[in-house]
Amino acid sequence: MALKPGQMLQKVLVLTLFPTILDGGSAEQVQGFVTRFYIQCLGRQPDSEGLNEWVGRLLNGSKTGADVAEGFVFSEEFIGRNHSNETFVAILYRAFFNREPDATGYKAWLERLAGGMSRKSVLNGFLKSQEFAGLCNSYGIVPYAGAPTYTASTYSGYSSSGAPGFQAGRKVNFIIWGDDSASNRPGGRVSGRTDINIFVHLNLNTHKAYLVTIPRDTWFGGRKINGYHASGANAGAVRAFEQFTGAKIDFYIVTDFDGFKPLIDYFGGVDTTVEENIADSFSGCYLTPGIHHINGTQALALTRARHGRSLYGGGAYARERQSAMLLADLLLQKRPMVSS
């Protein structure tokens, strides 16, 4: 059933990103940050009271990422597990560096503990590291009190390539399309329907980015908006979306199934949050609630999953919102690669 213009705003997701400041991420980002500590440190999903308490304090700026980390590691629940030094250090690597221990570092920390260093001192070593700061930055969270912040000059190497939008005030609009074609689908790799449509407004003066999902079933010009790419290719779709949004589109990004998977794999995968049980045999996505590190094949399955979905409006709306959340996660986590 096509979505009429008057219905559209009920199902649109708007994400606001602050890629060069550390004043606190969105509620969803911060929830993901706190949830990963429940999973990595306590081995369980968060209770709503504890989750809301930590998220609220991070959002209002009264707590930092380090405060949250200390709260978990020195909690009665964590201490009561009586972890060995080996397990303790391994947990710190997974929780604060988002990776398994490297042999050299792991050995060095264990030797320090064996030599009398306290676990609090070891924890402080992790919390003041660049890796932990990078993890916090990826969620839009201040790592610790007094941590250095990023400014626009940090990214002075960025080139606009002469794009008109940048020249006219350092503001640009671009659209991200997910094309439903693939080499192993009927018709092969063609200009297919854009079942994922994400409009992005980037303001380099304020260092903010706004991501707005446009549902594929939006009715525009007497047809579903996802069909303009199939009938008019990139140029025709740009014209249609400019008319629909009333905004000049400076760039477009389009990928199909065959392009999306290697893109995610090129970046080494992505950590993303799933908030409901997903078991979609159509897309091949089977994930439980929590934070998952997924590769290209899994990311494609997740962003296609619409069967049996209940959150975010269910169905295609859930798929669209999940796709935007995944792209936001990718941007924030891989920002150092893009800025280098």
How are the SSEs placed, and which strands pair?
Blueprint (H helix, E strand, L loop, with lengths): L13 E4 L9 H16 L5 H12 L5 H9 L2 H4 L5 H13 L5 H12 L4 H9 L2 H9 L25 H4 L3 E9 L14 E10 L4 E6 L5 E2 L2 E2 L3 H18 L5 E5 L1 H10 L3 E5 L3 E3 L4 E3 L2 E5 L1 H9 L10 H19 L1 H5 L1
Parallel strand pairs: 2-7
Antiparallel strand pairs: 1-4, 2-3, 3-4, 5-6, 8-11, 9-10
Poorly predicted sequence stretches spanning 5 or more consecutive residues: 1-13, 16-25, 149-168
- How far the N terminus sits from the C terminus, by CA atoms, comes to 45 Å
> Helix segment count?
14
**Structural domains: how many:** 2
What composes the largest sheet?
Answer: 5 strands, mixed
CATH architectural arrangement of the largest domain: 3-Layer(aba) Sandwich
The succession of helices and strands, N to C, reads EHHHHHHHHHEEEEEHEHEEEEHHH
CATH topology of the largest domain: Aminopeptidase
The total strand number stands at 11
Q: How much of the residues is beta strand, in percent?
A: 15-25%
Strand order of the largest sheet: 1-4-3-2-7
Q: What CATH first level of the largest domain would be assigned?
A: Alpha Beta
